[in-house]
Write a structure and sequence with these properties.
By secondary structure, the chain is an alpha+beta fold. Among the domains are: 85 residues, Phosphorylase Kinase, domain 1 (2-Layer Sandwich); 201 residues, Transferase(Phosphotransferase) domain 1 (Transferase(Phosphotransferase), domain 1), CATH 1.10.510. The chain contains 15 helices and 10 strands.
Length: 421
């Protein structure tokens, strides 16, 4: 349990937290619960960033920002918060299916996201991790697509937050990270404007402006390399779109637009100048195919859910908790039966041998009566052994009082063990 909500299945996982689908047992209300990882929960800075995320989104009331309505700790000390459960898919999954996005559609989708960012900046909050994975496309009953900004896990409350990142330690996703953020310097809202420019370039061209084989290579590209022109990467784009995109991707923060809304407005004007009609009505995007969103909807077994169940004072009976004993007792009974059979085979007396060795008693007295050294009989007149007796060499010493057991008798014991049934 996470507060009043029962965790059902894992929906996704971020940098230092996992998101679960949950349900209120009495109200039957579905929600999404984000729980801090065990490893990250031991880091005081990570805990403070996590709490700041919940506080940050509660300070903003906007349709395009996820709503958080509960916050607390699990019984084992892990922090969590409860937010709306959305019907849709993350933007990165939608982009993988759609590919490069039309300019008009991209502007219609990113305009409300830029407005949500400006509201967060006005409240003194920098997102610091803007990327397609943190933009969720939700569809309501009428079919309208509502983009929502979520996961302020890297957010930092400017001015009054107790969270202080160690100098020189970058926090965020390298592919969308501003140069100052890549250097581990102090950032402000213009860092989010840069990340918005990376997102715009990716949606319009189908490619990221900066890539590399390693994380260090990507960070150095953001710091040193000049961003490519979108019209050179994708010939279908008008060169008029290059200037507003390059301004968002400027290396120096003071050279970027003053706000996210201003950046998108400049790109929209350039598109209109290029003859592109940008609709201002309701956004209606095609839903992703079931093969794209169904994988997450089905969910996978998660051992953390067992941990959560173990923290409940009176956990409800489940198929997994009641089924384990019934699955083990047949195995235990089988082991007992097998042990009894093996014990019977090992401890039972060996089978009687006189029937098999009947001829041997008659031969043994002859061997005992013979002298210690017996000359070999002449080859011309061999003495035949008694009828029915086994031919055996005389003993080498008179001190041998017993006949040696035949190999065939001892070999029967492992044969019985190998096939006790």
């Amino acid at each position: 349990m996470a507060g009043e909500y029962r965790l059902l299945r894992k929906l996704g996982e971020g940098g230092f937290g996992a998101v679960y689908e949950a349900e209120h047992p009495l109200l039957k209300r579905r929600a999404a619960v984000k729980v801090l990882h065990r490893v990250a929960d031991k880091d005081s800075d990570a805990v403070l960033r996590f709490i700041s995320e919940a506080q940050a989104v509660n300070q903003i009331r906007n349709r395009h920002i996820i709503d958080v309505f509960s916050f607390g700790k699990l019984t084992d000390g892990r922090h969590f918060y409860v937010m709306d459960l959305l019907d849709g898919a993350p933007l990165d999954r939608w982009l993988k299916q759609q590919g490069r996005v039309d300019v008009a559609v991209a502007l219609q989708l990113l305009t409300p996201i830029a407005g949500a960012l400006d509201l967060a900046h006005a409240a003194g909050i920098v997102h610091r991790d803007l990327k397609p994975q943190n933009i969720f496309l939700a569809w309501d009953a009428s079919g309208e697509t509502i983009p929502k900004l979520l996961d302020f896990g890297m957010a930092k409350l400017l001015g009054e937050s107790p969270v202080h990142t160690v100098s020189g330690t970058p926090i965020g996703t390298p592919l969308y990270m501003s140069p100052e953020q890549a250097r581990g310097e102090k950032v402000d809202h213009r860092s989010d404007v840069y990340a918005l420019g990376v997102l715009c370039h990716e949606m319009l061209t189908g490619q990221l402006p900066f890539v590399g084989d390693t994380t260090v290579a990507v960070l150095m590209a953001h710091i040193i390399q000049t961003a490519p022109r979108a019209s050179e990467v994708c010939e279908e784009l008008s060169p008029l779109l290059d200037a507003p995109l390059l301004r968002m991707l400027a290396k120096k923060p003071e050279e970027r637009p003053a706000s996210a809304g201003e950046a998108i407005l400049a790109l929209r004007r350039a598109a209109e100048e290029a003859g592109i009609v940008v609709a201002s009505g309701t956004l209606r995007l095609p839903r992703p195919e079931p093969t794209v969103s169904g994988e997450q909807a089905r969910g996978e077994p998660d051992t953390l859910l067992d941990d959560f169940g173990a923290t409940e004072s009176d956990p409800p009976p489940t198929a997994s908790s009641s089924g384990a004993p019934r699955a083990l007792w047949p195995f235990g009974v089988g082991l007992l039966v097998l042990g009894a059979l093996l014990g019977f085979v090992v401890l039972r007396p060996p089978p009687s041998t006189p029937q098999v060795e009947a001829p041997r008693p008659s031969a043994v007295p002859q061997a005992l009566a013979a002298p210690s050294v017996v000359p070999a009989p002449p080859a011309s007149a061999p003495e035949p052994p008694p009828s029915g007796s086994a031919t055996a060499a005389p003993p080498s010493s008179a001190g041998d009082k017993k006949a040696k057991p035949r190999p065939g008798t001892a070999a029967r014991i492992p044969t019985d063990l190998e096939n006790p049934f």
